[in-house]
């Protein structure tokens, strides 16, 4: 990977890795907790906008 994006923000099949994980988790749970670190503001903004 030659990018400044966090690993979980890398695209896979038209969506980011984290969006795949969150969408799968939403099928089985009402509340999801995501622990973030580096570039947390970028991740938070992306996660808020996941449908």
TrEMBL record:
InterPro entries: Nucleotide-diphossugar_trans
GO terms of molecular function: transferase activity
Gene3D superfamilies assigned: Spore Coat Polysaccharide Biosynthesis Protein SpsA, Chain A
Keywords of the record: Transferase
Stated name of the protein: Bifunctional N-acetylglucosamine-1-phosphate uridyltransferase/glucosamine-1-phosphate acetyltransferase
Native source organism of the sequence: SAR86 cluster bacterium
